[in-house]
Request: fold
Amino acid sequence: GENVEQHPSTLSVQEGDSAVIKCTYSDSASNYFPWYKQELGKRPQLIIDIRSNVGEKKDQRIAVTLNKTAKHFSLHITETQPEDSAVYFCAAPDDRTGTASKLTFGTGTRLQVTL
Amino acid sequence: DTGVSQDPRHKITKRGQNVTFRCDPISEHNRLYWYRQTLGQGPEFLTYFQNEAQLEKSRLLSDRFSAERPKGSFSTLEIQRTEQGDSAMYLCASSYSGGGETQYFGPGTRLLVL
Reply:
């Protein structure tokens, strides 16, 4: 099955700085890579995703890059704000099911944006 | 409400008791997933349904766990003879197979086994 590794486990940045979170995956057949944000006591919320036919995707201050050759993808948050403080999870599907359904999650990155 | 809902939001039970959780997916979604999340970890896959068919079960899902989706709409997850190690957040998610597999999560049911 898929194995996803995520780094760093904690990240502290000053407001306005950029934050980068990196993930690697093991299954070269994986073709869909979502990022979820989870605030304390709340549900994971999808913030951005990327499919293997593109190398980069942006949505305002958030971007995701994908390197299929190296099997890694990264989340970039620019101009960080205090409300960006949360735990961020990357994920990849176990495409051996043939349906790209089961997601394997990374262990999470706790991002703290300080004033 | 167009989001995934779960009930109850919190459950405290004594070891050995049975518990049942319910998940209502987004109405047009044909896939429904159950995950378990422990403190400081990412969600771990338990099982998923496409319509009423249960297509995969994780080895994490011991024979004390059973899930159903009888009419292809809501789903229930039952844990029999609960153990303290079952304490966790149980998350439900749903997706539409023709819509790019994006999974949307419910608020979860937090289970505490005493």
Q: What stands out?
A: DSSP finds no helices and eleven strands in chain A. The two ends of chain A are 41 Å apart (CA to CA). Chain A has a mean pLDDT of 92. The CA atoms of residues 24 and 72 of chain A lie 4 Å apart.
